């Protein structure tokens, strides 16, 4: 007899589209469950946030926080990090994946911030995306978290949650991002990024979603959700 293999939910196709009537209750329930819809990256300034987000690409927030806990007391301005140089910066971030490339990007970003933006983090997409290591997702995080703009940064968690729940389905990150911005109620749009990422990180997990503890179980369109009720 062949061994039963548990279904890999991370690889499931998109669910059916969530009905419009369920979108507001979906976010109301997440808001009632998640008290603090904020990033788990530690920072005390817009610059610290920008650097932390650059470092977080393909890395965990935990690993970034470990690195910045040592880095920021020593250097937390563009000038101070630039003075460290690539090698000096690497000594603080070597626990983070792709740290060689990230060190190079951070140093270039610091130089550009000083020379082009008076050492101030830009509050618009065009200028942010001109910085090394800053793509659309990073820009969206900074615009949303630092400046309160209604942007949606779609990472692996949000991409999964959007497709699995039927809230916003699509084959690409950009498609999911645009659908989310279109569907999310205006009064939830600023915090929606954090509601969705925290829900994906701790409840709607990739391979073993905790459907039994899910506050939006009724609204979710995932056809196999009953299978995971005991988790």
Automatic annotation (TrEMBL):
Entry's EC annotation: 4.2.99.18
Required co-factors: [4Fe-4S] cluster
Name of a matching Pfam family: EndIII_4Fe-2S
Domain of life: Bacteria
Tagged with keyword Cell inner membrane: no
Region (Disordered): 1-21
Gene3D superfamilies: Helix-hairpin-Helix base-excision DNA repair enzymes (C-terminal) (1.10.1670.10), Hypothetical protein, domain 2 (1.10.340.30)
One MF term in the entry's GO annotations: class I DNA-(apurinic or apyrimidinic site) endonuclease activity
Cofactor binding annotation: Binds 1 [4Fe-4S] cluster.
Family annotation (CDD domains): ENDO3c (cd00056)
Keyword Iron: yes
Binding site for [4Fe-4S] cluster: 204, 211, 214, 220
Database matches in HAMAP family: Nth (MF_00942)
Family: Belongs to the Nth/MutY family.
Known role: DNA repair enzyme that has both DNA N-glycosylase activity and AP-lyase activity. The DNA N-glycosylase activity releases various damaged pyrimidines from DNA by cleaving the N-glycosidic bond, leaving an AP (apurinic/apyrimidinic) site. The AP-lyase activity cleaves the phosphodiester bond 3' to the AP site by a beta-elimination, leaving a 3'-terminal unsaturated sugar and a product with a terminal 5'-phosphate.
Protein name: Endonuclease III
Protein species of origin: Psychrobacter proteolyticus
Annotated gene: nth
